[in-house]
Amino acid sequence: MRTPGVVTRYYLYEATDTSGFVWPVFTLFLLSRGLSFTEIATLSAAMAVLVVVGEVPTGYVGDRIGRRNSLVVGRVAAVASLLGFLVVTTFPGFLALYALWALTFTFASGTEEAWLYETLDDRLDADEFTRVRGRGRAIGSWAMAATMVASGFLYVGNVEWPFLAAAAVGVLSVGVLLTMPEPGGDGERD
């Protein structure tokens, strides 16, 4: 069987890089875990600050370990935080999970676009970046919409099921990322 081309794998990554299972039910879930609205707002504010503060250090680390590996680290952090939400019950515990979740965003910020552009430049044609990126974002948006709808049904079944589904998709995303090349690699053309 032929390995899917690099663009197809990028589209698979976009389809699996979604938090749609948890976004619609997240506040309800946190309330069910005993947090107050004030604590939930504090967690969101802390995460926003951590994302901004974490941009430079994670960008540096990403430059050192490679673009693909940076995306893998971000997705692993996402899976770990999603699974952590199933066991943590205290505000400090949730704060630690939000810090871990912030890594998801900082390791991916700018890295996805840089990986795609450099990979297209190495293997295909960098002039295709806008078309491929646009199609990838559309695939990601459709996947997000589908998982958001499914989230409500899962949540009604069990408040933890959306987090398990999101973690499973996150593991799939890591698997897809591990099949993707690192830009500047062997120069093989897909």
TrEMBL record:
Keywords: Membrane, Transmembrane, Transmembrane helix. Gene3D superfamilies: MFS general substrate transporter like domains (1.20.1250.20). The keyword Repressor does not apply. SUPFAM superfamilies: MFS general substrate transporter (SSF103473). The keyword Magnesium does not apply. InterPro entries: MFS, MFS_DHA3_Transporter, MFS_trans_sf. It comes from the Archaea. Signal peptide: none annotated. The chain crosses the membrane at residues 40-60, 72-91, 138-155, 161-180. It holds the Pfam family MFS_1. This is MFS transporter.
